[in-house]
């Protein structure tokens, strides 16, 4: 067996309501509508800017200024929908077709 160490995620200021995962990265949605991310960001899927390749600790996405209602993660992409209906997308869509309906 392979032992994988783990750490407790604490002090986010709010309880975690939902967890969403992609390939090697995770999004945490808090009860207050905050968004925290960690893991690989080789395609920008963490939403932390192009200079960030990974994060071993949960860090907030700070460029969304309202409550996040929902999050969805794909293999290399992430999407968030805010309370007002704005959609934010990070990362890349593989096999994306601009003509798709």
From TrEMBL:
Keywords: Repeat. Pfam families: RCC1. The keyword Repeat applies. PROSITE patterns: RCC1_3. InterPro entries: RCC1/BLIP-II, Reg_chr_condens, Ub_ligase/GEF_domain. SUPFAM superfamilies: RCC1/BLIP-II (SSF50985). RCC repeats lie at residues 33-84. This is Myosin h.
């Amino acid at each position: 067996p392979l032992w994988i160490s783990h750490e407790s995620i604490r002090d986010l200021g709010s309880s975690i309501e939902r967890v969403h995962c992609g390939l090697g990265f995770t999004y945490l949605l808090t009860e207050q509508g905050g968004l925290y991310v960690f893991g690989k960001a080789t395609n920008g899927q963490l939403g932390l800017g192009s200079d960030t390749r990974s994060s071993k600790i949960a860090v907030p996405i700070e460029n969304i200024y309202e409550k996040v209602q929902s999050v969805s993660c794909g293999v290399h992409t992430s999407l968030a929908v805010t309370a007002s209906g704005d959609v934010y997308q990070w990362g890349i869509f593989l096999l994306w077709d601009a003509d798709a309906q």
